[in-house]
Amino acid sequence: MSMDIKALVKEQAEAWSGVVPPNAVSEELAAGFASLMAGLSALRGQLAFEDEPSSFEAALQATKEPNP
Amino acid sequence: MNIAIKPPGTLTSLSLTEAADAVAKGETTAVALTEAALAAIAAGDERVNSFIWLEGEQALETAARLDKVPKAERGKLHGVPLAHKDMYYKAGKLSTCGSKIRAEFRPGYTATVIERLEAEGSFALGGLNMAEFAQNATGHNQHYGHCHNPWGLDYCPGGSSSGSGAAVAARFVYAALGSDTGGSIRLPASLCGVTGIKGTQTRVSRHGVMPLSFSADNVGPLARSARDCARIMAVIAGHDPKDATSSKEPVPDYEAALDGDLKGIKIGVPKNYFLDDVDPDVMAGFEAMLGVLEGRGATLVPVTIPHMDAVATYGGVVSRVEGATIHAEWMRRQAQDYAIHLNSRLYASLGIPAVAYVEALSRRGPILKSIAAALFSEVDVFVAPTIRCKSPTLLATDVDAGTPGALDAFNTLSLNTRPINYMGLPSVSAPCGLDSRGMPIGFQVQGRPFGEGKALKVVDAFQRDTSFHRERPSGFAV
User: Fold this and answer.
1) Which of B121, B219, B317, B342 is the right S-S partner for B75, CB 3.0 to 4.6 Å?
2) Does a structural domain hold residue A26?
């Protein structure tokens, strides 16, 4: 991935939330998002559910323990 | 008045249910239990640092008042001193949330779970140490000092409910509330050798509890045994009109279901994800635990849990974005008041786009249904090591100190717990051995939604045949 993730996060955090990098460590952690982005990318096209959208609370009820 | 029949020296070794039952039978008093707890704290907490604040005199006054309550008016926890992670609001009392930002915060109202515990006759000695705003898995706290593991003072007690795990392990209190967004009850339970439960998402009210993640926060106890946890869950679970997200599902009598009989119970043993790269010591404890469950009549069934890549990826997105949202205003105004690692995590999380967050949330229900269809058609519960590695030291996981490899060690701790929060399942962690250095090893049992009772029943059955939950670190008052 050729994009500068540090710059991407910095732009988004400042533009949308008004938060600037508090220290150098924060920018290193932002760079660590490469693995998260790869994880999300890998999921594309892998999941298809017939019942989307559906609520999580409804799923809890639908799958609950029959003999609690 | 001190009418203790049990010698004071043995009082701190009682479990929560044993202590409550002893008070009920007149074998001891709330004052005697409190004096014993305060003596243990005075003797040991300088080393452990499990309390942020302590109100011993007030606790003794409360205990004396409780000892005068007629027996007919007493509740299930009458006279038992507790203490809670310092994020449960009680009107007028300090609630630091482990932070500098809330160092002087005194809320004007009381958490529903605290009201429910007090209605059953328990009371709190003080506020327990915790990760700053419940946001680390290790027990580090730059503002109030790191909490130490009573089993080995150089080791992580686990977080974020670090003081809760350490105080119960050191026999300072009989139980403590923690909170669990990615493992924060189960991690300290595992590392400190105690028993802890997070219920099904929505099972326990969060009114008056410091938020970290609206979608993944859970309230639950750490205590000595599954029976202790069952008693507390029966008190705190159930719908709360003040928390619209709390479930209206009826609360069963968890304690009554603890019969030790696992015949007919099918226990899933994951073939994927949860046993990846597990330390040999941890694996040995886990496998020995499986043998005990089989001996109690359970059938072990190898299972493959679907969608684990999605669960692991989405689970991190949800809690991070919600946490960053909650803290954005403080991040704008006083980012310097957070520890370095925390404000760095919060800052970075602001870079996760809304579409990723909504994708993670929108898939949560369908993924749960798909997992349940594949898994719970075959088994009643599934088990896993709570933590894949042996207990790390505080130094090895100190990201703020710049220890090389600390971030990886930090992230490894919650690999097996965080996915359970995304699934929303109930999960109980309990000790199942000691590693080669004498540090506790834990396992966790997951049930279907609202299947807390079955998960507790499995752990209780294990604890009937083993004594790991009764073992205690040396060097602390008996």
Assistant:
1) B121
2) yes
Paired tokens of B68: 């005068």
Q: Which of B206, B166, B207, B172 is nearest to B188 (CA)?
A: B166
Domain count, chain B: 1
CB contact under 8 A, B343 and A63: no
CA distance A65 to chain B (A): 5
Position B3 in a domain: no
B160 is catalytic: yes
Tokens coding A61: 């009820």
For residue B477, being part of any structural domain is answered with no
A:B CB pairs within 8 Å? 157
| Cβ-based contacts of A8 with chain B (< 8 Å) | 351
Residue-wise pLDDT tens digits, B90-130: 999 999 999 999 999 999 999 999 999 999 999 999 999 99
The residue range of the domain holding A49 is 5-62
Tell me, yes or no, whether A9 lies in a domain.
yes
Number of domains present in the structure of chain A = 1
List the structure tokens of B94.
């300090």
pLDDT tens profile B70-97? 999 999 999 999 999 999 999 999 999 9
Q: Divide the 478 residues of chain B into consecutive groups of 10 and give the mean pLDDT of each group.
A: 56 96 97 97 97 98 98 97 98 98 98 98 98 96 98 98 98 98 98 98 98 97 98 98 97 97 98 98 98 98 97 95 97 96 96 95 95 97 98 95 91 96 98 97 98 98 97 85
Residue B428: both structure tokens together: 């109980």
Cα–Cα dist B242/B393, whole Å: 40
Structure token pair of residue A41: 């990318």
CB of B143 within 8 A of CB of B98?
A: yes
Residues of A with Cβ-Cβ distance to B449 under 8 angstroms: 59-61, 63-65
Q: Would residue A67 count as lying in a domain?
A: no
Interface ipTM above 0.85: yes
B478, part of any domain = no
Domain interval for residue B147: 8-470
